[in-house]
Amino acid sequence: MGLVLPSCREAFRDCRKGETIWVVGSGSSLDHVGAGFFDGKTVVCVNRVGITLGIDEFFSVTHYHRDAMIVASFRPDLPVITPEDDLGAGTWEAADHRPTEPSIYFFPTNPQLFGAFDAERDWPTDPEALVAGPTSLHMAMCFAQYLGAASIVLAGADCGTFDGASNFAGYAIGDNPFTVWEQSLAQVAAEIRRRGTAVHSLNPFASLALEGHSFQSPTVRIN
């Protein structure tokens, strides 16, 4: 793929126009995706996912300035996308901790509304802004569209648990407000489709029967 650090954030617009872009979250369905699966693909990873999975080349998108700094320190050769203002909920990432790494690019966003977010109402009107939904995944999807994606394929965007696990092995488990995520993911996907980009999700199993594995979300239970 040959990622190159651009001189300004605007240089990202349509630089992958017409491509299929994989947006990778931290869900435990990734435990069923083989190592190297994302090699050679255009990949946008959420928070620390790219460095944890050891993906060779990827864009990172995170709401959190702390995660932006961590990813940039591990992979200074790769671009990290983060909001102008940290969108954590009362964490230490205040103005005096604003990252300075040259591989970090700051984008404007709408205000962080968490569970009160409504995609149709709250989507930013600034064409250079990325959407701030309840999770960094939504900003990553918006950034993939900013890159020019014809199609977005979500991986690890589970909004639930596989075999009781919420995150893939080795990833730090945080808050998982699945009810909010499940509702808002559908809204964000619908808005991105309305703006011209297809959105699908990777099922790592042979069928929706999940080969005997169990999945549970706030509204769905399989096996």
Concise account of the structure shown:
The protein is α/β, with parallel strands linked by helices. Helices cover 21% and strands 16% of the residues. The longest helix is centred in the C-terminal third of the chain and has 17 residues, at 178-194.
Order of the strands making up the biggest sheet: 5-4-3-2-1-6-8
Tell me the number of helical segments per DSSP (H or I, 4 or more residues long). Answer: 5
List SSEs in N-to-C order.
EEHEHEEHHEEHEEE
What does the radius of gyration come to? Answer: 16 Å
| CATH fold type | sialyltransferase cstii, chain A
Helix content: 10-25%
Please provide the count of β strands.
10
Outline the biggest β-sheet.
7 strands, parallel
Second-tier CATH architecture = Alpha-Beta Complex
Our measurement of the CA-to-CA distance between the termini, rounded to an integer number of angstroms, reads 39 Å
Strand content: 15-25%
Structurally, the number of domains stands at: 1
**Helix/strand/pairing class, anyone?**
alpha/beta
Mean pLDDT: 93
Judging from the principal axes of the Cα atoms, what is the shape? globular
Low-confidence stretches: none
The level-1 CATH class: Alpha Beta
